[in-house]
């Protein structure tokens, strides 16, 4: 960039920050302003902030799960212990996810700032909202996304949408952290709407700052990756917050091909009865544990139950695909 262009870009931001009292800003707000001035364009600054955060958080959060998968000590907490992803599988998955990020997500960088401005979301502006405001707005986004995801995910299990879109995500009947975003681009867009729409809707009722949305997306990425991790530790969040879904809930969805459609919370699946098979399975595992004379005996009985669920899931998946075939032929 030439000196003139840099000066011009800086001038644009100087105009935007003309009335800002920099001495009143905290450390994070000062860094925020420095970032926007450095890029010289709110569109690029907001877009790159989103893209880089996504890459750093997605792969950064997946890394501990890759390490855990490589250490046999952790197998006792693996939900489907006989299904450990191979390094090749993980590498293939990484390449696919990265390719989708670069080809689908990177170009959308230019769309976010205009969209945010259209609904009145603050982006480059400082100061940030109070912690209380951020907290309730983040919770609202979480609540909204969970309900949206429950409904959209159920729709993705209807024959046509499953066959042409959602089947990609169900490649792994025993998921792992990196597989959280392993999906058809259309699915990424559909389910991504749930992450975005809550914040946009909120903009019509109150002032929303991009920093709240940005933090919410970080939480959402942690939730998505952890729920695909395939591990249920005694210290996992669902053992502390009973309505939290966690890996134990979503792993069953991949194994059984049905039930447990929501993301963060268990309540919608409970209210709408889309966790009936999951509850039966949990009861059966509990009974097997009570009945077994030794740990080995229990693990054997649990594996048999898993095999049964997997076999039923495969049958259900074939039935859904067959249905889509018939419908396609009729059309
Ligand atoms: Zn699904
Ligand atoms: Zn999944």
UniProtKB/TrEMBL annotation:
It holds the Pfam family FA_hydroxylase. InterPro entries: Fatty_acid_hydroxylase, Sterol_Desaturase_Related. It is found in: Membrane. GO terms for molecular function: iron ion binding; oxidoreductase activity. Residues 139-274 form the Fatty acid hydroxylase domain. The chain crosses the membrane at residues 33-53, 196-219. Its main location: membrane. It comes from the Eukaryota. Keywords: Membrane, Transmembrane, Transmembrane helix. One of its GO terms (biological process) is lipid biosynthetic process. GO terms for cellular component: membrane. This is Fatty acid hydroxylase domain-containing protein. It comes from Rhodocollybia butyracea.
């Amino acid at each position: 960039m030439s000196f003139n262009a840099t000066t011009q870009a800086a001038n644009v931001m100087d105009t935007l920050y003309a009335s800002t009292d920099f001495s009143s800003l905290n450390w994070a707000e000062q860094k925020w302003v420095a970032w926007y001035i450095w890029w010289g364009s709110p569109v690029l600054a907001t877009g790159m902030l989103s893209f880089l955060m996504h890459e750093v958080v997605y792969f950064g959060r997946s890394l501990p799960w890759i390490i855990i998968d490589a250490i046999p000590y952790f197998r006792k907490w693996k939900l489907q212990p006989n299904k450990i992803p191979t390094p090749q599988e993980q590498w293939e998955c990484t390449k696919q996810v990265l390719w989708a990020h670069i080809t689908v997500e990177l170009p959308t960088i230019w769309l976010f700032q205009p969209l945010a401005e259209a609904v009145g979301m603050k982006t480059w502006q400082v100061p940030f909202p109070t912690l209380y405001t951020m907290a309730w707005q983040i919770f609202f986004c979480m609540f909204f996304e969970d309900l949206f995801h429950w409904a959209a995910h159920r729709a993705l299990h209807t024959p046509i949408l499953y066959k042409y879109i959602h089947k990609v995500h169900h490649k792994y009947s025993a998921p792992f952290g990196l597989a959280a975003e392993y999906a058809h681009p259309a699915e990424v867009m559909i389910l991504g709407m749930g992450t975005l729409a809550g914040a946009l809707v909120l903009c019509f009722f109150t002032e929303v700052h991009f920093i709240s949305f940005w933090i919410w997306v970080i939480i959402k990425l942690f939730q998505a990756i952890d729920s695909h991790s395939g591990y249920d530790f005694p210290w996992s969040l669902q053992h502390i917050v009973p309505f939290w879904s966690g890996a134990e809930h979503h792993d069953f969805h991949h194994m059984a091909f049905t039930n447990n459609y929501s993301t963060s919370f268990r309540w919608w699946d409970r209210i709408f009865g889309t966790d009936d098979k999951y509850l039966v399975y949990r009861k059966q595992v509990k009974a097997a544990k009570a009945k077994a004379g030794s740990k080995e005996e229990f693990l054997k009985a649990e594996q048999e139950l898993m095999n049964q669920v997997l076999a039923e899931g495969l049958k259900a998946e074939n039935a859904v695909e067959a249905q889509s075939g018939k419908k396609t032929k009729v059309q």
